[in-house]
Design goal:
Strand content: 5-15%
Radius of gyration: 18 Å
Shape: globular
Number of helices: 14
CATH architecture of the domain at 5-206: Alpha-Beta Barrel
Largest sheet: 8 strands, parallel
Distance between the termini: 21 Å
Length: 320
């Protein structure tokens, strides 16, 4: 009933893609998303070596026989684990679906498509989606300014960016940014998407390895509980509006340099805080859909609720 080009290409039951979540996209959580009918994604940036990533891929296969993907962030990094290492890992483990994000995948297309692998690319601008199609990407994900993580500096909403992108490309489009429930799924489909990506909503699921303190913060959040950092240097990041985020906003207002700001945004701070439960111990990515979260559910129940809500809307739309 929810068959689209996205579900067909990826071999999944529901047109729902799990967001690539650093430190959290580990085997048990990824497998839970895939077992629930969506596409779970291992976040390669969570690992420090090729062997670590290969081991996580193997663990995921032990927990699910459903499709899953590996995300490779193409932004330059100071970490020793290189893009080449990540590509070696997915090759050596015969991963059939890979998602790229960050910069253009063009320099890596031969490796990304090796062996008939399905390649998804996530971006935040229409022109980047057009370029992705031109270089041979199979599916493109477009996220509006509502999304947690890295929206575009132009701050175009999903409501506008998604249909603009659908009109500009012929490959299947996955929409993201502000999508949490069945209403969001149906809105995305009405705008031309053939699938959705959900990140923030999945943070508040039972299987997500997020400390309960963070999940409770999401339940208590409203639509104003996030902010965009680094707009001053045209490299925005949408995060939860906690004390560290307020400090960064103050630093930007004072004209502090990027070199002064970045140490306060180190990813390692997040890894530690996610374990200890210190909600104010790091900058953490969070989308505006946090304002819709009211309970913690198992991934399977969460997806079933999304589909049930969407079906009810579709039936309502079908009435004369």
């Amino acid at each position: 009933m929810w068959n689209t080009r996205v579900t067909e290409k990826l071999g999944i039951a529901f047109p729902i893609i799990g967001g690539a979540l650093q430190w959290l996209g580990r085997a048990p959580f990824v497998a839970a998303i895939s077992n629930a009918g969506g596409l779970g994604i291992i976040t390669s940036a969570s690992f420090t070596s090729k062997d670590e990533l290969k081991n996580e891929i193997r663990q995921t296969r032990q927990l699910t026989d459903k499709p899953f993907a590996v995300n490779i962030n193409l932004f330059p990094s100071m970490r020793p684990f290189s893009i080449a290492d990540m590509l070696d890992a997915v090759d050596e483990e015969s991963v059939s679906i890979v998602e790229t994000s960050g910069r253009s995948p063009e320099p890596y297309m031969e490796r990304l498509k090796r062996g008939g692998r399905i390649h998804m690319h996530k971006c935040a601008r229409r022109k980047d989606a057009i370029k992705a199609e031109a270089v041979g990407v199979d599916l493109v994900t477009i996220v509006g300014t509502e999304c947690g993580g890295h929206p575009a500096h132009e701050a175009v909403s999903t409501l506008v960016l998604l249909p603009c992108t659908v009109d500009a490309v012929t490959i299947p489009v996955i929409g993201g940014g502000g999508i949490y429930d069945g209403r969001g799924l149906m809105a995305a489909f009405a705008l031309g998407a053939e699938g959705v990506v959900i990140g923030t909503g999945l943070l508040a699921t039972t299987e997500c390895p997020f400390h309960p303190n963070f999940k409770q913060a999401l339940i208590q959040a409203d639509e104003t509980s996030t902010c965009r950092l680094l707009d001053s240097v045209k490299a925005p990041v949408r995060t939860f509006l906690n004390q560290p985020a307020k400090t960064i906003l103050d630093m930007e207002a004072q004209g502090k340099s990027l070199e002064e700001i970045l140490p306060r945004m180190r990813g390692e701070l997040g890894r530690e805080a996610y374990q200890t439960g210190d909600v104010n111990g790091c900058i953490w990515a969070c989308g505006q859909s946090a304002g819709l979260i009211r309970e913690i559910l198992p991934v399977k129940d969460y997806f079933q609720r999304i589909i049930k809500e969407a079906e009810a809307i579709r039936k309502q739309w079908g009435k004369p």
